Amino acid sequence: MDSTASYLTGQAFEEASGQVLGLVTWLVEAVDWLYDHWYLLALAIAVPWGVGEMVVRRLARRACAERMALELTPTRHFDPGIEEIFRRGVQLARASTTMPWWAPRRSKTVQIRLRADGSSPLRYRIEGPAGGERLLSITPFGPDVTVDRARPIVDKPRDHVVRAEFILRGKLTSPLREVPLEPDPLQPLVDAVSDLRAELGDLAEVRLDIQRAPKWALRARRLQLMSAARRQERRETQRAARWVRQDATGIEDSLAWNLQALVTGKDGSARRLVMPPVPRRVDPAEALGKLAHDDHLVRVQLLVMCASNIEGRAQARLAQLQAGFDVFGGRSRWAMRGWRLGPWRFGADHWPTRRSFERRWDLGQCQPPRANWVRLEELTGLLKPPTVHCRLPLLAGDLPTFEFGDPELLLQGIYRGPDGRRRLVATHTVETLFECGVGKAGGGKTERALAQAIAWAHAGGGLMFVDPHRDSWPRAATFLAHDHLMQRIALIDLNAAGSSPMLTSWNPIAMHHGQTPHDVVEAVTDAFASILGWDDAAAPRALTILTSSLAVLVAINQAACQAGRREDQTTIFHMRSLLSDPGFRSAALATVADRLDEETRAWWRTVFPTFPPDAFGVVLNPLARLASNPVTRAFLGQPVGVYNSRAAMDNGLVVWVCPAGNGPTDRLLTALIARDLLRAVRSRRDTPEEQRRRFRLYFDELITLTGAAPETIASMFEDFRKFRVSVHGMTQLLGRLPAPVRMSLTQNASTLASTAGSKTAIAPITAEWGDKPSADEVAVLDRFEHYMSLTVGGRRIGPVRITGPHLDEVFADYARPGKVAALEHAARVTAGAVPLDELTATAAAQQARVVDFLTQRAPAATADVRLSKHTEGYQ
Fold it and tell me: What proportion of the chain, given as a percentage, has pLDDT over 90?
């Protein structure tokens, strides 16, 4: 029985051994056959993989064709918080999954595009699935960010293009550096493209694809990390155990140990029991780091492309962007994918990865490297457009480059770009309506205004430069002394310098230009009222007397012009004869009785006789001051003045007005000129808007001018835009301007500029800018340096630091010092300047001419008039 069992057992063993041997033989033969026919195995693997990849690519291409694009434009004060940015990241991650069920994972992505091509400092664009448009259109940023549907971008081919893909290097479980929001995390990238030049074909674009992390890939990654951590812990434990044993052996074999054994009588050959360290438990949170939790974990793909038509600029731009991404680096950092061999680098620009890069770039697909796992908190700096804390460069598209002779551009100054290049910048003439320059004396305010005025004159524009100190005229004359300008320039200089001064003339109440009578009366009355502080409550009688008297004198002038006797017009000095000489008054009223309204005639008949003689002193005293000054008497005492502000505007003249000073008489004269300007500009309503020629007013020493006519200057800053007249005002202290002028100026200014000065003086301007820059920064500017805010394309640019143009530098080619004398002569001829003695004689004889005219027009009053025919009244 036992032998039989043994036989059967041996037989079974032999059969099993034969089967195992046969199986091994078959496996060896199969391996040998596969070795001889390896291509069949490769083909069996490659064909399904290729077919699968082809199907996936076709589906991904189809899915990516159904994408939309949104462009986000932040306001100047966009300042989001961490929570708002995080919520935006959650939206982006959620939107990446709004794809059809059949879409491959590589097409399930939302892409952030940061692009600089010269059209703007940094365009921020979101591209993603069409199904996520509604989710992405409503941002947590609120009204501070405008979201618009964007069109596809088509780039022209550039001669030189470089590409790069960035992957996370370092300790992959560690987060990127936590970059604060102030300054803006995008600032390094903005700085990297700040010197981009569109005319050279420069282009830089960064694309960040965000994709929700697949669960299976995350689990596989965690298993890999945990296994690696456990292996590392075991290696560390084994190393520690070896060191413990070595230390124990070394101690037992040492001399000290053996001596201790002899002293104590113990057997030194006995070995101590050594307990090796045991591996500690691996902490998942420590081993997995940022991959420990599923929430808000995404995979990212970071692609960069730079291009230019100039060799080397694209490579330099890529290096700048790489340095910009270094800001986000900590224990984990962004690094370019590829490898380097000496001076050559092999990456996305070379085979075999270039084709994959271009496919992902063109189609918007996302196939991130295995290492590119990040949490949304790490991408905070890239999940929003540039904020208020980001310094954006000033591009040529933001602020046009000035071109000499172009009437559409208005010179503003010299801008120094981040690359050190300097260019003349300008604003568009049509939208530069009112300008204000503030700063200390000698800081460059007047120099910048002169440069702008000179450039405008050479471009064919008309202007008036009002300078109470006359310093601007000799400074500008050198650059205006050109033959084609001389016939358009008029100099009205009331300083009467020299042995035989030349002076022009003006009659504020003359009617030979066809003015409306009530407009002339109102302009002169308002000028007197503003400088003398009259109003309906404080001086009603003075206003009434002045208004009624001017109505009579203007009516006389209208009658003289209609009779063809312009030389017989009255001046404002004839008001004394009208009020104090009964014969003159009777003849005047008889002459113009049919030209006055019934109310005015009734006032002269019933109210005027009730006034005592001393009631007229308040009106006659300022006239007496004007008459006592030979210059103002000669200037205002002519029946037919040459000065005509309306004609200067319509004909595009370049007029320089230099009042004599800022005393009481000078302020009254300045007020008359300012009010006449207001009247003349408003009178342009009789001309269709498209036919109104653009005209610019430059007011130097605005404090002096507004002291004479505050309400008038304020009205200019409020009304002149409608009539195509612009105003440029300069002042040392904005706070010293009257409140109406200051408020109208800051409210409507297209350009606000400030040079250096005290912080107290500059604070009102920097407050308009939100104290960015602060008064401290502006106060220490060098001479000719300005901070200014400008209006271009309907939006505010700046405040930006601009160097004021220096005439000797910017207009060096326009200097004609040898023709200044000819210019002065031509400018005085255009202004109708004649010797002061001549004008004085004409003014003295005008009383007699007016009396003769009134005698002929009013025979009934001849006897009374004859009594005062040769009375000058104010001599």
Answer: 24
In 117-185, beta strands by DSSP E: 123-129, 145-149, 160-170
DSSP state letters, 350-411:
STTHHHHHHHHHHHT-----TT-EEEGGGGGGGSS---TT------TTTSPBP-TT-TTEEE
Q: What is the residue type of 828?
A: R
Whole-number Cα distances in Å, 117 to 114, 206, 274, 313, 395: 10, 12, 71, 13, 10
SS3 state of residue 527: helix
Q: Which 8-state DSSP code applies to residue 503?
A: E
State pLDDT tens for residues 379-436. Answer: 998 999 999 888 888 877 788 889 998 999 999 999 988 878 888 999 999 988 889 8
29 - beta bridge partners? Answer: none
pTM of the model: 0.79
Distance CA 149, CA 141 (A): 17
Alpha carbons 205 and 163: distance in angstroms, whole number: 10
Please write the tens of the pLDDT for every residue from 319-365.
999 999 999 988 889 999 888 777 777 788 888 888 889 999 988 88
What is the C-alpha separation between 367 and 361, in angstroms, rounded? Answer: 11
Residue 723 CB coordination number (10 Å) = 18
**How far, in Å, CA of 393 to CA of 412, rounded?**
17
Sequence letter at residue 297: L
- The one-letter amino acid at 459: A
18 vs 758: CA distance, rounded Å: 107
Longest dimension (CA), the chain: 180
Between CA 159 and CA 693 the distance in angstroms is: 47
Q: How far apart are CA 134 and CA 149, in angstroms?
A: 11
Burial class (CB in 10 A: 0-12, 13-18, 19+), 410: buried
Helix (H) or strand (E) holding 727: strand 725-731
Task: Please give the Cα distance from 514 to 511 (Å, whole number).
Answer: 6
Q: Helices 836-857 & 540-562, crossing angle to 10 degrees?
A: 80
DSSP structure class, residue 752: E
Three-class secondary structure of residue 412 per DSSP: strand
Give the β-pairing of 332-336 and 110-116: unpaired
Tokens of 840: 């004085």
CB 760 within 8 A of CB 766: no
Residue 11's Cβ-side half-sphere holds a number of Cα atoms within 13 Å equal to 6
420-424 long-range contacts, CB within 8 A, separation 24+? 421/195, 422/803, 423/396, 424/805, 424/810
Nearest CA-CA partner of 167 in 322, 306, 341: 322
